[in-house]
Amino acid sequence: MHSTTSISVAGATQMARPAVATKSKSDEFVRIENVVKQFGDSTAVDNVNLSIAKNELFALLGSSGCGKSTLLRMLAGLETVTSGRIFVDGEDLAAMPSYKRPVNMMFQSYALFPHMSVEANIAFGLKQEGTPKNEIKERVADALNLVQMSKYAQRKPHQLSGGQQQRVALARSLVKRPKLLLLDEPMSALDKKIRQKTQLELVNIIEKVDVTCVMVTHDQEEAMTMAGRLAVMSEGRIVQIGSPSQVYEFPNSRFSAEFIGSTNLFEGRVVEDEPDHIFVESDELEARMYVSHGVTGPLGMPVGISVRPERVKVSLEKPAAPHNWARGVVSDVAYMGSYSLYHVRLPSGKTVVSNLSSSHLMSEGAPSYNDDVFVYWSPASGVVLTQ
């Protein structure tokens, strides 16, 4: 039985999908080897290697122009590979046209035919393949039932809500029984409230069918809510791969730390390095930073220390510990209901962000705008970044 991990992203607590257990080579379903995609002199995808397990829901996450959609389109056969190889279920897709691939893609626009009913939209691909009528009827009925849209079978797309249209597009993708389902920004057309509700609905539907899923998104919360594993991309390369909790709690670079959620990043240099701890001095802080694990590198090595806002405390009293604190002034307070977001300006000019729960503020007292305060965090809260 899998367990889920609670992750705070930009102040909102998300329940991450269960991480996929380590897979053996025989469980590998999608393999991308040294894939490069060039458009003229521009490299959109730069030597990407990736392995995805059977029945895994995997997310490619990154900002616009990072190469994630190009990689998805190469899987679908909508873009050719400049160099490298792509395998799906052991088959080399290099010479296979898109219409013969065991792959179906759900576009962010949904691309439903406006003049067709829901039922006809779902049946369209099967009719094009010459599937027998009785089989079409049965498979379409099963697909409608799967996405809970049976009672809307005769409606036209304009008579449906955005969330309902998305389910129809998903049913149309699944009715052809693809081995690999590709989702391109699947929630971008929905407003925030519907998007949050639909994310888990979509995952639950996908988990009911025997399909491996790769989704592309720039929305961190969407990737961390839906995916068992994700890859962070930047400038055509994969920066980090892991479960949502691994990537959030243990970023491997400044880019990952700042892209996934928000963080306080302190620049400094290692002044003491032991197997179980290091001390870091920073011009941005009065006190030394103490991190409860060692690093490999020479003394004086420049590092960044990432501390997530929910791990930073704010107090009117000076903390007892001799490290991991700074004095400052509250420059802004944003009340968000279950928590408040504090911005504390330090003498160095740096602003530290703290995410304090309402229950903590009720028990400890809530500092106000322009108050003199101290920010502090535990030795286990900092993550050392050398890249």
Describe it.
It comes from Paraburkholderia podalyriae. 23% of the residues lie in helices and 34% in strands. It is α+β, with helices and mostly antiparallel strands. It folds into 2 domains: 177 residues, 3-Layer(aba) Sandwich (Rossmann fold), CATH 3.40.50; 124 residues, Beta Barrel (OB fold (Dihydrolipoamide Acetyltransferase, E2P)), CATH 2.40.50. It is elongated, with a radius of gyration of 24 Å. The chain starts with 5 loop residues before the first strand and ends with a strand. The N terminus is likely disordered.
Q: Write down the CATH class of the largest domain.
A: Alpha Beta
Biggest sheet record: 6 strands, mixed
Which percent range fits the helix content?
10-25%
Give the CATH superfamily of the largest domain. Answer: P-loop containing nucleotide triphosphate hydrolases
The second-level CATH architecture of the largest domain is: 3-Layer(aba) Sandwich
How would the global form be characterised?
elongated
Tell me the number of helical segments per DSSP (H or I, 4 or more residues long).
9
| Uncertain runs | 1-8, 10-25
Mean of residue pLDDT values: 86
Number of strands: 22
Organism: Paraburkholderia podalyriae
Enzyme class: translocase
Subunit structure: The complex is composed of two ATP-binding proteins (PotA), two transmembrane proteins (PotB and PotC) and a solute-binding protein (PotD).
EC number: 7.6.2.11
